[in-house]
Amino acid sequence: MPSIISADLKVTGDLVSDGDIQVDGVIEGDIQSRTVTVGEAAHVKGSIAADTVRVCGAVTGQVKGTSVTLAKTAKVIGDIMHQTLAIEPGAFLEGHCRRLEQASDAKMSLVKDKPAAAVASGPLGGGVAAASNH
């Protein structure tokens, strides 16, 4: 089951997971996970690093993944580093695309040593603990 950032949730800080993350809200920070899906109404201001990235919403920052897909509703402002890249007609991309030679390049160069905390705010409140990434 994926970790879900719902549409009414705003997270300020970095998210790190070994599983799947579905973003439908707003993230101001970096995301590192196995799989990241950015929903149509979502906005991410920060970098995304995952094995598989699917962007349907807005991302302002670098996207790095083994497999990256930009849906027709995607709006990406930033560079994309990938092994495979699919861009559906209608997607918006402002940035450079660079192919990674090895799958390990997608994740190995993303991890920073400094941990950081993430704060969640929304109708339900609560908090999210995370470690930083790039």
What does this structure look like?
- With 134 residues, the protein is mainly beta.
- The chain has one helix at residues 103-108, and strands spanning 3-5, 10-12, 15-16, 20-23, 26-28, 31-38, 43-45, 48-55, 58-60, 63-70, 75-77, 80-87, 92-94, 97-99, 119-121.
- The strands form two sheets. Strands 1, 3, 4, 6, 8, 10, 12 and 14 form an eight-stranded parallel β-sheet that branches. Strands 13-11-9-7-5-2-15 form a seven-stranded mixed β-sheet, with no helix packed on it.
- The chain is globular, with a radius of gyration of 14 Å.
- The relative contact order is 0.20.
List descriptors.
134 residues; mainly beta; eight-stranded parallel β-sheet; seven-stranded mixed β-sheet; disordered C terminus
Strand content: over 45%
Separation of termini?
24 Å
- Let me know the largest β-sheet: 8 strands, parallel
Helicity level, as a percent range?
under 10%
Structural class, from helix and strand content?
mainly beta
Series of H and E elements = EEEEEEEEEEEEEEHE
Overall average residue pLDDT:
83
In total, the number of strands is: 15
Shape: globular
Low-confidence blocks of residues = 111-134
**Domains, number:** 1
Task: Kindly provide the radius of gyration, computed on alpha-carbon positions and rounded to a whole number of angstroms.
Answer: 14 Å
| Separate helix tally | 1
Brief digest:
The chain is mainly β. The protein has one helix and 15 strands; from the N terminus they run E-E-E-E-E-E-E-E-E-E-E-E-E-E-H-E.
